[in-house]
Amino acid sequence: MSHAVIPALEAVFTVGDVARDADVAPSAVRFYEKTGVITAQRDGGNQRRFDESAPCRIKVAKLAQRVGLTVREIADLFADLPPDPRSQDWGRVAAELVAEAERRTAELRACLAEMQSGGRLCESVDRIPEPPTSPGCRGDHVRSSG
Amino acid sequence: MSHAVIPALEAVFTVGDVARDADVAPSAVRFYEKTGVITAQRDGGNQRRFDESAPCRIKVAKLAQRVGLTVREIADLFADLPPDPRSQDWGRVAAELVAEAERRTAELRACLAEMQSGGRLCESVDRIPEPPTSPGCRGDHVRSSG
DNA sequence: ACTTGACCTCAACATATGTTCAACCGGCAG
DNA sequence: CTGCCGGTTGAACATATGTTGAGGTCAAGT
What we know:
By secondary structure, the first copy, chain A, is mainly alpha-helical. Chain A has 5 helices and 2 strands. Chain A has a two-stranded antiparallel ribbon with strand order 1-2. The interface between A and B is large, with 45 and 45 residues.
């Protein structure tokens, strides 16, 4: 039985198509390809052809940036997505994204609370020997293997 | 009745002091002053003198950046702080910050949900005439009244 | 054949967020 | 007095996130 060869994931959308669908400038579409947020094939005339997930990835990336993720972090997150992601794949990514946003909000809340509690790290008018900031409330946050 | 003149809010901390307390580079301290996150007086030798709120402002700014606020937005938020902020002033700022982080997380969640619901804006394999994205899930977000 | 429009690349520019460096000043210890 | 230490400035550099523009290609329409 000759199944039709899987069509290499119909990459049929042009830069302009994706730009319109995602509501960003074409330059941004090329930028997101360069940084790995989206991927493209090339057609006979060397033009980029995106699959239908591209506009979606960009929209999601924009939302993720809004809660503090870098383009690099977003590309890493999307790296797990299969080509032609299914609804459940998007669901998983969405969940990870929300979880990360909540992690950061929780950290914000916890560190602010720590700063206001006990020793009153803010408004420490007097010498109270500054209880050391807990790990996790220092500005570290790993900068990645890559 | 001669009350002692209010001591201009003891601005006694040097760039180095603040950098050490906030755990950032001295260059960052100058940067934050330039952008209005912290403010300084000058001493006789033209050196910056910060009040005790400076390291705190910087620490809070770092946390806020982590959830997606820009330095500009943070400076605007701090603009409401009185000189020599009290615990309650910090409490208010902290609450606004957490509220903003939550607003953004909620928007993330809502827009992701919208994208996955009904028309399946992602994975729209077929022509389903793309229900328009709701306002609020477009990348607008006002860019400031100078 | 010519024009048009959308694409291509690559470089320059622009803004945000910092760091580094050179050149200089001022106080304090030896 | 002489260093050194830490402060000052301004400029240059660096990275992230894009935009703009010059110069070229390619297919479609007239």
